[in-house]
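ARCHIVE CARD
CATEGORY: sequence design from structure
SOURCE FIELD: tokenized fold
FIELD CONTENT:
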């Protein structure tokens, strides 16, 4: 049998008489901090990870809006990836100057740049609320239970935040679903909304190799950045930051990753995996591939055009590669066959339970809901999920239109993204003075209109409404040229004016959002009732069966919440060739061609003779990570940072569905190259000294 595992697969196969002995064990598992398998780690690796260790690492790990990070000084300094703060660089750039290209180093407090849409969250407490959610949904039909669940979660979040509102440091409370509804928690965060950029290298060295090297190894990327969190215009005081050990780890050394993996689908049924394979991924890939071509064509017009599309193109190319490999994984019938065998094993176990008749067959229910999803997927994707209105400006318009309506309702009756707990984040995003380029907005919006007409057909009511008299390009250009939503002041004025301001607005994007909102809401409601609700009820029944068999001896799917994983520093064998786990600076210069994306920046070329070419650059480990773990600290058993996670190899992408212990590898920046860069290339001894004096 292959040594890869989906979550729970090895455990499920042990209930079959044909389970194979001696299967190699992988260090897989994205464990919650309240259920970390310290005893298993001690038995396997001889390391002691106790509660004080877990508490200290938890309080030093930071969740950004899109990635993970960690506190690395007592003065609120935060270490993360360059690609995690690329949007901040882009927002502080202009048509004539790209900070993504140039990088940034703040030598004074005044030179630190505000990242207007960024947040930094630290997990303070986890509260199990499963019993209260179950009580609220007991004996209800699927649609009623789905509504009751959302109301209950909103009420619990609001009560949690209200109880801390009078303290000097109120908490941000978020409900978390684990094990596909087997458990519900309230995660309580301390949120910092004043986050400033201190240091980022040039993109040429942060992403050396660009898209061709993305998800590959060996790698030579200084994918690092330093932020600082502020509280009341003062740097956050951090009692116990993580200390950086610039020596890094040794081959085969135990290393742990503390971070926020975005999402995995290891608990999905075979029907859901086939739905993703057949219905969801192919059209997404087609649209993304064509949009990539549009970006590249636009960027070729001038340096100014290249700067405007640099950040969105980089993000799009990364997503394309991920989705392509996800589709490849789901097209591997061997893996799906083994997944089906595990599913059948659990179904047989459920059928033998005393209450089997009451449980029914939740897999059949999910399969039926998946079939319904096939008919709803395209209109839902284009009209409600936003593929047909691919524009930041339109997303502002929809937030304003829906916000005005939702804020007039009781909190528990609102759409979940407009509850009282969610509003401060919306206001922050609306008020951030970000750079918006009309040419790019018109390009993406026209593309969305074109693809919506192609996939839904020219006679679809929404398509006819939009394009009866104008071409997609003409409509997009007219809307973008006439809107005022590119200005933060205009957006905030509409938000603060509420329903009256929205009703009176003549902004064309506001009018567009209003004109399609009824149809979009109807699609959303139908999807929630016919797909989401029955799937949730069935998933909870499957989760109950898993708990009956295994309890919390298995780990839950990733949900962009804090997890801890352990592994070792190691390479792998690729087509008979051993891939070594470390790279060195000298080989980066050997690989350089002088042309992007293999061009080393001038700042490095100028000091080449002073650099130690033996300096470790990147390293690989077998830690179990996915997107969202970018920026996670790689930590040794002593609780020191010995690396900075920034990527996985190409085999790691299938980690969304299962873990391949033979080839799935995480890629990290070695701390030695961080020290070499800060000291010799960027001449930032004060910043390096702040990193080295971190006390705990």
């Amino acid at each position: 049998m292959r040594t890869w595992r989906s979550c729970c697969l090895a455990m499920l196969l042990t209930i079959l008489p044909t389970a194979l002995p001696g299967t190699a064990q992988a260090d897989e598992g994205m464990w919650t901090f309240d259920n970390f398998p310290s005893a298993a780690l001690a038995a396997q690796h001889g390391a002691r990870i106790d509660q004080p260790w877990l508490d200290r690492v938890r309080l030093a790990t930071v969740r950004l809006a899109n990635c993970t990070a960690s506190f690395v000084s007592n003065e609120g300094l935060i270490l993360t990836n360059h690609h995690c703060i690329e949007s901040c660089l882009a927002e502080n750039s202009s048509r004539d100057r790209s900070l993504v290209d140039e990088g940034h180093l703040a030598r004074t407090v005044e030179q630190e740049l505000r990242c207007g849409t960024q947040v930094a969250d630290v997990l303070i407490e986890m509260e199990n609320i499963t019993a209260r959610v179950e009580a609220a949904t007991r004996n209800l039909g699927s649609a009623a239970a789905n509504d009751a669940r959302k109301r209950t979660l909103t009420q619990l979040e609001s009560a949690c935040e209200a109880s801390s509102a009078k303290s000097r440091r109120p908490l941000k409370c978020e409900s978390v679903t684990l094990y596909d509804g087997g458990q519900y928690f309230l995660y309580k965060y301390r949120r910092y909304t004043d986050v400033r950029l201190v240091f980022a290298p040039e993109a040429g060295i942060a992403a050396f190799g660009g898209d061709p090297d993305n998800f590959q190894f060996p790698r030579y990327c200084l994918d690092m950045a330093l932020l600082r969190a502020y509280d009341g215009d003062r740097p956050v005081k951090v009692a116990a930051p993580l200390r950086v050990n610039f020596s890094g780890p040794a081959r085969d050394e135990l290393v742990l990753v503390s971070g926020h993996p975005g999402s995995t689908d290891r608990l999905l049924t075979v029907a859901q995996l086939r739905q993703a394979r057949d219905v969801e991924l192919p059209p997404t890939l087609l649209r993304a591939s064509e949009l990539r071509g549009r970006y590249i064509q636009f960027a070729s017009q001038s340096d100014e055009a290249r700067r405007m599309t640099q950040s969105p193109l980089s993000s799009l190319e990364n997503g394309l590669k991920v989705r392509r490999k996800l589709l490849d994984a789901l097209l591997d019938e061997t893996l799906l066959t083994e997944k089906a065998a595990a599913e059948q094993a659990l179904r047989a176990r459920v059928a033998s339970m005393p209450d089997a008749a009451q449980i029914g067959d939740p897999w059949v229910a999910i399969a039926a809901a998946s079939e319904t999803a096939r008919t709803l997927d395209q209109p839902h994707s284009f009209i409600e999920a936003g593929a047909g209105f691919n524009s930041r400006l339109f997303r502002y318009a929809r937030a304003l239109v829906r916000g005005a309506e939702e804020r007039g309702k009781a909190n528990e009756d609102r759409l979940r993204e407009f509850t009282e707990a969610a509003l401060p984040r919306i206001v922050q995003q609306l008020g951030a003075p970000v750079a918006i380029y009309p040419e790019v907005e018109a390009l993406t919006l026209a593309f969305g209109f074109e693809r919506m007409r192609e996939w839904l057909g020219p006679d679809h009511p929404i398509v006819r409404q939009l394009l009866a008299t104008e071409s997609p390009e003409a409509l997009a250009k007219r809307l973008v040229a006439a809107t005022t939503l590119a200005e933060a002041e205009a957006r905030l004025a509409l938000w603060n004016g509420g329903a009256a301001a929205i009703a009176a607005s003549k902004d064309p994007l506001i009018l567009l959002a209003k004109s399609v909102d009824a149809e979009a809401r109807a699609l959303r409601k139908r999807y929630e009732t016919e797909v989401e609700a029955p799937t949730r009820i069935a998933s909870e029944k499957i989760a109950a069966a898993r708990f009956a068999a295994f309890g919390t001896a298995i780990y839950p799917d990733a949900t962009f919440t804090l997890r801890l994983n352990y592994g070792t520093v190691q390479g792998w064998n690729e087509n008979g060739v051993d891939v070594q786990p470390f790279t060195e600076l000298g080989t980066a210069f050997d690989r350089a061609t002088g042309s992007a994306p293999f061009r080393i920046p001038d700042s490095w070329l100028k000091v080449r003779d002073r650099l130690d070419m033996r300096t470790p650059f990147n390293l690989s480990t077998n830690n179990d990570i996915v997107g969202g773990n970018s920026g996670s600290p790689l930590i040794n058993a002593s609780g020191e940072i010995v690396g900075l996670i920034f990527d996985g190899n190409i085999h790691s992408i299938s980690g969304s569905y299962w873990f391949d212990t033979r080839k799935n590898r995480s890629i990290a920046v070695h701390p030695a190259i961080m020290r070499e860069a800060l000291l010799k290339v960027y001449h930032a001894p004060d910043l390096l000294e702040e990193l080295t004096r971190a006390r705990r």
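CARD ANNOTATION: Residues 1-26 have pLDDT under 50 and may be disordered. Residues 508-550 form the longest helix (43 residues).
SHELF: design records, drawer C
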